[in-house]
Each structure stands twice: as C-alpha cells, then as structure tokens.
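Objective 1b: paired records.
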Amino acid sequence: MSGRSMGKMARLLSPDIIMYALIILAFGIGTYERNRVWGSGVSLLKDTVSKSPNKERPHTNLGYELIMEERFEEAIVEDLKSIEIGGKDYIPYQHLGIAYFSIGDLNSAYYYAHQAATMERTEATLIPLGMILKEKGYKTDGKRLIKP
C-alpha cells in the first residue's frame, strides 16, 4: 500500500469512526428486534404481557387477538388469567364464551357468555349468548334469560 492509502485507512479506523459505527450498529439491531415485536398484534401483546404480567388488560387484549387468529385454546388461557387478575370486566368472559363456542364446548361457552351478558347487557354480549343457545337447541335470543 502506498503512503496515501495508509493515511486514508488510518482515518477510516479512527476511534471516532469506530465508535459511531458501533452506535449505528447497536441502534440498527435494536430497531430490527422491535420490528419483530411490532410485526403482529399477537407478538406485540405477548411482549406487553411479559412486561406487565399482573395486569388484566394486556391478557384480555391478547385473548382477543388470539381469537381473531383462531387460536382458541391460547385465548382461553389468556382470558382466564385476565379474570383471575381482575374479574370485573365483562370482556374476557365474552371472549371465553366465543372461544369455547368455537371449539365446541357449549356448556363452558354458555357459562361464560351468560356471565358476560349478566355483567353488561348489550347486543355485543347478547348476540353470542343467543348463538350458543340456538346451537344448544333453545328457541330464544337470550334476552329473556337475563334479568334487566
């Protein structure tokens, strides 16, 4: 190598340049890792649950995302955990009704859908209950079974 090439090489390998390259590399790796987490609703919410395992809402939201991906057994685990932690919100009960209905466990589906409809009497809770009752052979939409 010529003297001129050696001078360029020395400038490229200066401590400042190496430090900046390492910082850029570290941020690049961090960005890549965060993009993997943000890649889907399930991966994002699993990350949230891992960081807040004792909060009800992340488990409920993860249960919803799992239902949307038709991963019903996993959704059941998350919504049961949500109820264990808090138990005051009707939404995990509603999710459980839908998940159990989807895997064909009509008795569990009815139990949780009825709980949801008792806690919050809306179309969002009565429609799944009505679907379950219809599947069980009842001729009702569920409204008459829940006291106002």
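Objective 1b, second protein:
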Amino acid sequence: MHCHESCTCHWPKSSETGQFFPDDISQGSVLQWFRRFNQGLISRKYYTSHNNQLADSLSFSVRKGDIFLALAIPHIEIGANGPCHNWVSVLVQGELKACQKVDASAETILQLAGYVCEVFGLQITRMFVYAFTIYGSVLRSYLFDRAGVSISERIHIRKNRVTQQLFTKILQAYVSMGQVQLVFNTNYKYAHSDHTNGRVFLPTLRNPALNF
C-alpha cells in the first residue's frame, strides 16, 4: 500500500501503537489507542469532538462525532477540549460504542447516517463518504452515497494478529486517500491563481493554498 503523493505520514510500528486493540474496550481506552496511532501521522489525524458538538451543522443539531479523520491541526491532540473542527473538515466519520450487540443495528446505521448527512450538506462536491464503527472489538466499514449505504462484513479486531493488522491497514488506507479516492467531484476546480493553479475544489480546505 502506497501513500497518496500529498500524504506526508509514516505508518506507526506495532511497538508504537500497541500490538493489539485494548482489552478494556471503554471509549477512553480506545481513544488512548488512537492517540498512540496518531503519533505516526502528520498531515491527517483521527480526532474526537470530546463533549462538544461539531460546528456549522446545517440541521442545527447537537451531534458529536465520536471519532473522525480530518486534516491535522498542530498541537491539538485527540480528545482536546474546545471546538477544533467542524463538519466541513470531516474526511471519514466513525462511531464508538462499548457494546457490540448493537453492531449494524438499524439505530446504529441511522445514527451514522445522521453524521454523514452533515458531511454531505457542507461538502457539496462530495459524492461518497467513508465511515466505520467500532462496537466492542468489532469493526465495520461503511460507504455512503446520497441515496444509501454499503456495509462490510464484521471484523473481530482482537481475533488474531491478522485481524489486528487488517484493522490498522484500514485506518491507514483512510489516511492515505486522495481527493479521487475520497470521491470529491473533480469537475469542480478553483479559478486559476498563483496559489490554486486550477486545483480541484475541496470544501474541506478553508484555505485553498494548503495541501490536501
């Protein structure tokens, strides 16, 4: 697996992230695992909204993203207090729960779909949104478009070394995706200028001169 050309990350080694997903599957323990995982990432990182709602909601909801991938903000750690992100900055959306009995339930899918609707509402050129859930030690991946969703089979993260490695590779794949893999409509481009040079319009970039 190769990084997108604009990705400056290096993948964390097992000694940096911990060999296996935590035995204690409380949200705090899982976020601590993601904090270690983030140490190997530079341009994008996984964040949580902590107890703050994500800003700029078009539905005026109080939704709080458990875990999401966004462009890295210097000196901001996962779980930091304060509204550091908003829905326009979410690249991949996630949801965490300690109980795996609700995995892939109708309630789960509707909750995740509510988050994705916020992303679609503000990222007007976004055609698909990737998402994932970690319920207990069970992972599922989701792919939403504006009409529905495709759902993967469940992956038991702690089953063995292979499933643990598959889990981290999925997270790494999300980080490495470029604008095409994240399914932004590449027909929309910035007007030519010294900074944008006709680049694809990305609503996640408030400053078009930044690298995606």
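The chain has one domain: 14-176. The longest strand covers residues 90-97.
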